[in-house]
């Protein structure tokens, strides 16, 4: 079986520089970062949020509160995912009422993950505002959602996947565009007549 064709669009240095830029953009937009909290969307939004927390801490000398959000219960396709959906812990140990929440995720695609994250956040309070920071915006939106902070815009086809690899989860930092394998046209199985037992 041949390996899917992939193209590297970001290496470790580009990932780091993108996050540094996003950290500075957040600080520039929010003069009082004391009102800002970060919430990483599981899975790879969490290490990205942790890196932003460290970078903003270096710039401002303040450590922003950091939460972790699992959105599986809020997905609009949860019925089709069914028992295979693995629920992980949501950890938000601080009030978000009247705070400026920055959601952090790895890839923005249709917008449905972000919609689920918004629903999940509302169970914890009423923020003053919610912004979105993503490493990759690949387009193809199905909902009216946009990112406030983007590491890189990567035009993609629907026959492609974006694979974000992070040191914390995968042992290295890299972003790949992977061509989906073509489905082979198989022979259609026509239903057979049930065998009748002779009486």
Structural account:
With 199 residues, the chain is an alpha/beta fold. The chain has one domain: 3-Layer(aba) Sandwich (Rossmann fold), CATH 3.40.50.2020. 27% of the residues lie in helices and 25% in strands. The strands form 2 sheets. Strands 3-2-4-5-6 form a 5-stranded parallel beta sheet. The protein has a 3-stranded antiparallel beta sheet with strand order 1-8-7. Helix 2 links the parallel strand 2 and strand 3. Helix 1 crosses helix 2. The longest helix is centred in the first third of the chain and has 18 residues. It starts with 5 loop residues before the first strand and ends in a 20-residue tail after the last strand.
Rg over C-alpha atoms, rounded to the nearest angstrom: 21 Å
CATH architecture: 3-Layer(aba) Sandwich
Report the mean per-residue pLDDT as an integer. 88
Q: Do you know the CATH topology?
A: Rossmann fold
Share in β-strands = 25-35%
Secondary-structure element pattern, one letter each? EHEHEHEHEEEHE
N-to-C span: 49 Å
Major β-sheet strand ordering: 3-2-4-5-6
Number of domains: 1
The proportion of residues forming helix, as a percent range, comes to 25-40%
Q: Tell the overall outline.
A: globular
Low-confidence stretches: 78-84, 190-199
Quick overview of this protein structure:
This protein is an alpha/beta fold and 199 residues long.
Structural features:
3-stranded antiparallel beta sheet; 5 helices; alpha/beta; 27% helix; Rossmann fold; 25% strand; 199 residues; disordered C terminus; 5-stranded parallel beta sheet; 8 strands
């Amino acid at each position: 079986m041949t390996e899917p064709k992939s193209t590297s669009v970001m290496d470790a240095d580009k990932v780091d520089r993108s996050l540094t830029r996003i950290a500075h953009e957040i600080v520039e937009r929010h003069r009082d970062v004391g009102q800002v909290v970060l919430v990483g969307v599981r899975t790879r939004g969490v290490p990205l949020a942790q890196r932003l927390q460290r970078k903003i801490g270096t710039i401002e000398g303040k450590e922003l509160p950091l939460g972790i959000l699992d959105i599986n219960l809020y997905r609009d396709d949860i019925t089709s995912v069914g028992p295979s959906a693995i629920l992980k812990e949501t950890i938000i140990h601080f009030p978000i009422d009247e705070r400026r929440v920055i959601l952090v995720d790895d890839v923005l695609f249709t917008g449905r993950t972000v919609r689920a994250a918004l629903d999940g956040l509302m169970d914890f309070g009423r923020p003053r505002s919610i912004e979105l920071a993503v490493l990759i915006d690949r387009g193809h939106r199905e909902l009216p959602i946009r990112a406030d902070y983007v590491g890189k815009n990567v035009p993609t086809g629907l026959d492609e996947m974006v694979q974000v690899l992070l040191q914390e989860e995968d042992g290295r930092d890299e972003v790949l565009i992977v061509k989906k394998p073509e489905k082979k046209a198989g022979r259609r199985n026509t239903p057979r007549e049930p065998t009748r037992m002779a009486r």
